[in-house]
């Protein structure tokens, strides 16, 4: 738990004042609560007892009784309001801190590379940002608002009891070490089962996210039963871990009650004898018994929240795991601002792999600013990987990529990416209006600029037929649009970005022949000074390129103008001959 709290320590600094005041009020409450049994002692020893003595010289019983009742009301009222304010301040600080942590984890996930995200499951990561942070937050709130004051109360009462009668206190609390040991053992078991439960919960969330995202495949291939069976299996693991926690937790309360009852029996046994012997007054015994009862209350509260703690610790370990992952792609010290680049790009002996077989094996290619270069080659040749090195979606393993003669790693990542417009193979849209989806390209663009980009990318061709035009809402991940329509929105985005480097990764693969021709025409209307990389299979898309690089097996196997390559035998010539798709000598 301490380790978990340490994770949140840096975020506590902002709320130091609130935490300090909350803790001070909690201490004040403890001090006031220590006085709670004393009115009873006054009533017993100075009002009702046959051998009563005057209280501070006051003989009149009614006055003493009135004073005792007034004292009780003041003590209880004061303790209640101190309790209210300390709980409120400490809970507010805990909740705000966890909201901050959630934001930090969310941003941190955005900084981690595509390689990291490729190796993780979306559902599991979203569980870490949502319910894991919630569980950790529950733990912090409980630690601050419940545990800290209760621990202070225990220490305070123990101190007063020792002061009143040290030997009697030790007898009364003789069983406490056994209780602490039993609670500790159960907490260790709880922590282990909570860890398993959190892991299983992450897997359940991941399975649900994946399955819901693949609805068309599930229904088309009638995978409903197998998906349900897999889901049930994961749910069972989570259920088993949850049941084990419940079993351990159910032991807590009876354990505390039993220890408390045994201790009370011991106190009554010895206490009654001491009152009869005249060693202590009846009032003092009552204060003792009352303290003892109250002393076990915080221990009970502690055992009750140990489930929250076990779950919170397991959850905060998962949050910490994310925060401890160092972003692979980050700004180097003294990184430059990539502003107003001209757009020349150079690949120097570039090697890359995703952790297995090499994907790029020594690429050398210099592309001048303003040049349009087409990348063609068979599936899996490494074309998309090569272009994703430019905006540093991935980094080279060996060799370097230079933009405007400087290594891409010497620019600030964000500024470098703002100089690159990229149409990805997989056109992902957000749940927002068409216009807002286009505006992603340049958030500060005016409506007129968005409309112009939509016109150039032929978005208006279909948007005009929609009830709200560009203000029509798009379903999650663009589900309400066709593949070709999504591709056009994605191209409009890139046009709006107006960056010196434009990367089009199979921008027209989902378009029909007529739309493709119109789009290629539209793209050629863009200012000619931008450097354009176009990954394509269709000859019609690459005909306008200044040069073509043919990739195969992670190497450039042909390089030249479309005319030069068409004049030589090889994969490019095959395409020209067949008038189809450039593949490894294939055709469409
Ligand atoms: N995120 C990834 N993790 C692991 N391997 C990957 C990843 N992305 C691509 N690969 C592998 O890298 C190789 C090159 O992929 P890449 O997408 O660059 O090829 P491509 O030439 O663009 O193919 P296509 O024409 O089919 O789009 C492939 O063998 C692919 O399996």
Plain-language structure description:
- The protein is of the alpha/beta class and 588 residues long.
- The chain has a domain at 2-324: ABC transporter transmembrane region fold (Up-down Bundle), CATH 1.20.1560.10.
- It has helices spanning 2-12, 16-34, 38-48, 61-111, 114-118, 122-164, 166-172, 176-213, 215-220, 224-276, 282-324, 383-388, 413-417, 434-439, 447-456, 459-463, 483-497, 513-524, 539-542, 562-567, 571-578; strands at 345-353, 358-367, 372-376, 398-403, 406-407, 420-423, 501-505, 531-535, 547-552, 555-560.
- A six-stranded mixed beta sheet has the order 6-7-8-3-9-10. A four-stranded antiparallel beta sheet has the order 2-1-4-5, with no helix packed on it.
- Strand 9 and strand 10 form a beta hairpin.
- The longest helix has 53 residues, at 224-276.
- The relative contact order is 0.08.
- The structure holds adenosine-5'-triphosphate.
Descriptive tags:
single chain, 588 residues, alpha/beta, ABC transporter transmembrane region fold, six-stranded mixed β-sheet, 21 helices, 10 strands, disordered C terminus, binds adenosine-5'-triphosphate, ATP-binding, transmembrane, membrane, nucleotide-binding, ABC_transporter-like_ATP-bd
Mean pLDDT: 82
Overall morphology: elongated
Unreliable stretches covering 5 or more consecutive residues: 582-588
From the alpha-carbon coordinates, what is the Rg to the nearest angstrom?
Answer: 36 Å
Biggest sheet strand line-up: 6-7-8-3-9-10
Fourth-level CATH superfamily of the domain at 2-324: ABC transporter type 1, transmembrane domain
Per CATH, the class of the domain at 2-324 reads Mainly Alpha
Bound molecules: adenosine-5'-triphosphate
InterPro entries: AAA+_ATPase, ABC1_TM_dom, ABC1_TM_sf, ABC_transporter-like_ATP-bd, ABC_transporter-like_CS, P-loop_NTPase, Type_1_exporter
Protein name: ABC transporter ATP-binding protein
Transmembrane segments: 64-85, 143-164, 170-188
Subcellular location: Cell membrane
